[in-house]
Amino acid sequence: MTTHASSTLLQEIADRIEKLSRLTVENGATPDEAATALGMIQKLLTRHNISMEVAQAHASGEKSPIGYHPMAFDTKNKINWSDYLLVALSKAFYCHVVSETSQKRYMIIGTANDAKLVMTLYNRIRLTLDRMATNATKLYALDFEDPKALTGEYSLKSYRNSYLLGAVSTLRTKLHEIMKENNVETQGQSTALMINRSTAIQAAVSARYPKLIHKRVQSKHNELAYRQGQEDAKKVGLHTGELKG
Fold first, then answer.
1. Helix or strand holding residue 179 (H, E)
2. Predicted structure pTM score
3. Which of 33, 150, 178, 236 fits a disulfide with 154 by CB distance 3.0 to 4.6 angstroms?
């Protein structure tokens, strides 16, 4: 028999998330305290398959408030590795993301708190990976007398993009493993709530994007850079977006 989390438990979880969300640097918390609070919020969301709004809505019997949350992006980079990063984070925190190229923005579909969490982590991790790729590409260039003359999969651009795609691959795997662990821990809990939210999100996506087109990144691939990115990304903390150790 499937057991669902009670309304009382869901309200308690929502209250804890709300209190933790107030621990920000802007509100006087230290960077470490803010990072710890963010990590605890992520753990609560993934462990119980809920968000604060959904838990509150369930407790009060109201409809889940799924919405559309825009976020600007830089269209200069045609090979947009960051798309994959945002998709991975969105899946991990119960959202769906669509790239609106004509509007030069992403649209994240989900609850407000889930979308805010995705955006916060995306911006932190993206900056960290960007710095890592810059440093790795500089080291790669030192092996050549004229690195700017390199072409195809050996070019500096290809090395950098391949490195970043490899890094995102590792983070996607880490996020998937965390989700799988939490699903095992909470097997049978909040199942109806999770299904209702997933259905609501898909309905919101279909309503806004009835003719959604799926695309994949096409690029020259440097296998050495890809593997290096995979290895280096193991040191990136998912809660803080910073390098560990």
1. helix 156-185
2. 0.70
3. 150
